[in-house]
Amino acid sequence: MACSCEQMFLFMNSLTTLATKHLTDIVNDAIRLQPSEHALVIFDTVAPLTRIITDGYRGALPNGEFLDFDSVTPEEVIQKMRSLNEGDLVVLVQSMNFRLNEFRIRIELFARGLKTVEHVHLARIQEPQFPVYIEALAYEKAFYHEKGHGLKKRLDTCSKIVVNCPGTTLTYDTGMEPTKLNIGDYTEMKNVGGTFPIGEVFTEAKDLTKVNGEAMIFGYANQDHYIQIVEPFKVIVKDGILTAPDAPQDFKDILDRIREDEEVIVREFGLGLNRAMGKDKIVYDITAFERQHGMHLSLGAKHAIYAKPGLHRKKGRYHVDVFVDIEKIQIDDEVVYRDGEFHV
What we know:
By secondary structure, the chain is an alpha+beta fold.
C-alpha cells in the first residue's frame, strides 16, 4: 500500500510539473500577460484534476491571487472580478461550470477587457486520461499558426471540399463561411483567451444543402456529453441532412431526439489541430476532445457563430459533435490531409 501511495504521489507530482510548464507557456506566449497585469485564479477542489491544474497555475503564476470558489459567496466572487483592471487575467478552473445566478461570467469578463482562460468539465475526465488532457495544454505555437492560418486561407477561398473515409466520400460542393481560428493567436481579436485546450479551425458550408455523400464516424458526444468511441459506422448526408441507419442504437436515439425539434443538419466543419488527442488518445469531455487532431462535424440547427436564413443563431436547440474517421481531405485541387497529417 505504501508503495502504491508513493507511486500515486510521484504520478500526480509529475503531472503538476508538466501542467506548470504548459500553463506557463499559455500565460506568457498565448495570453501574453505583462508584469504590470494582475492574475486571479478562481478554482474549486471537487475533481482531482482541478487540483492538479490549480497547482500548475501556482507554479505558472507565482504572483497570482487564488480564490476557492466554494469558500466565498457569489457576491464576493463578482466583487473580486469587478475590482480588476482592463488587461488583467482571470483563470477559471472548474470541475463543471461555475454558476453565479444571472451573472454570465465569460461575457462579463470580456466586456471588461479582461483576459480569460477557462478549464471546464474537469470532473468528466478520468484519472487515466489526466496525462492526455495535460499534454493537450501544450501550446504548439509554430504548428498551430502555420496549420491554422494555412487552412483558413484555403477554406476561405475554396469552392469544393472532398472528404474521404474508408469506403466513403463526402462532398461540399459550395464555398465556406469565413473560417474561425482557435489557435492562441489573439492579435486581431477583441477578446483575449477562451476555453483551453485549444487547436481548432472551423467553418461551415455557405449553402448547407450542397453537402452530400457518406462518411464514417468513430466517435460522438452521447446524451450526457461524454465522448463515446465506437467501431466506425456509416452516415449518409443528402442535401445537408444526415441519417445513420447503421449507427449504434444510442446514436440513433440522439438523432431521434434532435428530430423532435429540428432537422439533423450538418453544420460545423471543424478541423482539430491538437496532436495530444485522437481516436486512441481520448478525454471524455467534448469541450476538450473537440480539438482532437482530425475532423469533426456538428449536427443540429444550433451554431453560435454562423446565421443562416431560417436558422437564427439563438434559436437552434442542438449542436452535437461527431468525429470523422478521415483518410484524406481535399480542398479544391489540393490535398490538405492524408496519412494522419495536415499538409499546408
